[in-house]
Design brief:
The complex is a heterodimer of chains A (338) and B (408).
Chain A: H1 2-9, E1 16-20, H2 21-35, E2 39-43, H3 59-63, E3 68-70, H4 75-87, E4 91-95, H5 106-113, H6 116-119, E5 129-134, H7 149-153, E6 159-161, H8 166-178, E7 183-188, E8 195-199, E9 211-214, E10 219-223, H9 226-240, E11 245-249, E12 252-254, H10 258-268, E13 271-278, H11 283-295, E14 304-308, H12 317-322, H13 327-335
Parallel strand pairs in A: 2-3, 2-4, 4-5, 5-7, 6-7, 10-11, 10-13, 13-14
Antiparallel strand pairs in A: 1-8, 6-12, 9-11
Chain B: E1 3-6, E2 16-22, E3 29-30, E4 35-41, E5 44-49, E6 54-59, E7 66-68, E8 72-77, H1 84-98, H2 131-139, H3 160-179, H4 190-203, E9 207-215, H5 217-230, H6 239-253, E10 260-261, E11 266-267, E12 274-276, E13 278-280, E14 283-285, E15 288-289, H7 297-312, H8 318-321, E16 326-330, E17 349-363, E18 366-380, H9 386-401
Parallel strand pairs in B: 12-16, 16-17
Antiparallel strand pairs in B: 1-8, 2-4, 2-7, 3-6, 4-5, 6-8, 9-18, 10-11, 12-15, 13-14, 17-18
Helix pairs in contact in B: 2-3, 6-7, 6-9
Chain lengths: 338, 408
Amino acid sequence: MPDVAEKMVNQDAEEMVTMTYVEAITDAIRVEMQRDESVFVMGEDVGVYGGIFGATRGLYAEFGAERVRDTAISEAIIAGAATGAAVTGLRPVAEIMFIDFTTIAMDQIVNQAAKMRYMFGGKAMVPMVIRTPTGTGRGAAAQHSQSLEAWHCHVPGLKVVMPSTPYDAKGLLISAIRDNNPVIFIEHKILYATKGEVPRGEYTIPLSQAEVKREGNDVSIIATSLMVQRSLAAAELLEKEGISAGVVDPRTLYPLDKETLLRSVQKTNRAIVVHEACKTGGFGGEVATLIMEEAFDYLDAPVMRCAGLDVPIPFSPPLEKAVIPDENQIVSVVKSLF
Amino acid sequence: MAVRVIMPKLGLTMTEGKIVRWLKEEGDPIKKGEPLLEIMTEKIVTEVESPGDGILVKILSFPEEVVQVTDVIAIIAPQGENVDAMIQEIEAEKTSTEGAPAPVEAVVQEEKAPAAVEEEVAVAGRVKASPLARRIAREKGIFDKLERIKGTGPGGRIVKKDVLAYAEKEKTELTVPATTVETRTEPLTALRQAIATRMSASWQTPHFYLETEIDAGPLLEMRVKINEALKKDNLKITVTDLLVKIVAFVISENRYMNASYTKEGIVYPGEINTGVAVAIDEGLIVPVVKNADKKGIRQISQENRGLIAKAKENKLGLDDITGGTFTISNLGMFPVDAFTAIINPPEAAILAIGQVVEKPVCVNGEIKARTCMRITLGLDHRAIDGAQGARFLAALKETLENPLLLSL
């Protein structure tokens, strides 16, 4: 059970402090940089400026220019250099300013970072993390608002992590930094400002461990990132209508904790998958198919996807809001199953 | 013009009939010749057809009521015709003949509770059920009944709770009666009442019984031979057919067996009419083969077959079951070796036939395998004495074991 495992790794954590999601990320990097000299930060404006969303704020002052490195405005260089550094013994924590820009880094990520461990028979390790913000909500338009996690999930050799709370963000990022494989660590812009209780000091959350964020009996809402929060809000609304909805956050998309997901569906017999990414080719199709393949006989209704529309994200705030699932939309999809 | 429906006289001896049930209700339209009600006489239920066209405006006699023949039991009139005057007239007739108005007790015949009709959902083609619902249905062995389950999911999809609810319902419907068989009272049918009355009356008769075992070999052999001969006519005779013939033949040679005790004296009927007890779903009935002593085996067989068929279809006429002078009751098709039957009054004797059994028999100091049959003669001691019965039984045994004697 996740709770038990976490408590065990948390035994060294001294106390809980309230911090934001972005502070939890900074804290995770700081803890790891203090613990392990091979850990370093690189990216556009991550040094003095502290990163576009402030995720590396204070690190430059604490660890200096050599371990907190500003790079050229080239995502290909960032990803390539990080891969090289990782293969040669360092543990880079690279930042790609928007997940949209990982497209420029794709050759390095897909063809180099993801392949080396396999192609060198396990002799090469690629202990790198690419942190990158995802999603809508800031009026950043079509080239700065996408949700491209499914692209990365499609590449064997990469691990893909998507935390939804400050607590998860810190524990998962520490695990990601310690992992000997390339990890795409996807943070949500809107979640950066959300606050939560986070242990001071180091603790880890194993990669590939989903968490049931809310227990429910009638339907399992499987949601990622920002949609976890919206699904929890939807579950509150559903509760008032007599539907007991559970919310499950995979937290790590690849490798996926199938057992926790399936256990929930086997209990509730109904599932919907909620994500911000557009529906077609999205991660929701993967989860829905998994449930169909492995829990078909437990289903009392089709697995539905509640996802972003298949459109480029509009710049107009009302339209931007309209193309992404909100609580009411989640509620109505759930209700369509009854 | 209103028509009076009367209790019909269906046989020469019929004086009254009991209303079994009305096939129409007051207010129903009816055509001449359409079945209107069922009445019972003796042990026979007969359908009575409507004597006219119109509306069944008034029913005057109700189920279980015994009505004299020709008494008016209903009125059929054209739509709108007032029959009050006619009803008064009929009531007046009754009052004058009986002195007091007949108590009209409406005994509503107990009807079977309507079978629980499952709410059927007709779905064209494939039944819409969730995978989970299908799995549960499969596990509970009700997969083939999915189409009977009403789905409460979106678009009428059958979901888990629908299957569980159905299974639960089925469980209560199926297992509860199976595990707890409740004591119940089956209302007496008219036939059952008639059997009870006649058997109770007969029980007052001082019965005595004489039993013997016969070698049934020759009789069975004769049957085989006759059937071989009748094959070309596609006919088959039964052991009972042969018994009817042989019994009637032996009675004709021992007329004292054809008797009926009455207070006025012992009546010896001129005809030898042999009744054969037939089990039907509702009980027991004894159709009669008249003058069996004078008929050939082929004719007896054909008559028997017709009577049995009519009995099973409840179509026996009054004349088919009256006038018997001697009864044969054959339980040989069951593993019954022998039994003592109750005399069917006003007859004075009854012959009970047991099963044919192959067994070792001592013949002239040697053990031989023989097909044996035990026959038991029940007698009314008021009309027939032991020695008479014994002589008859001896003659019967002799003829049964040597059926050639029939030809003498």
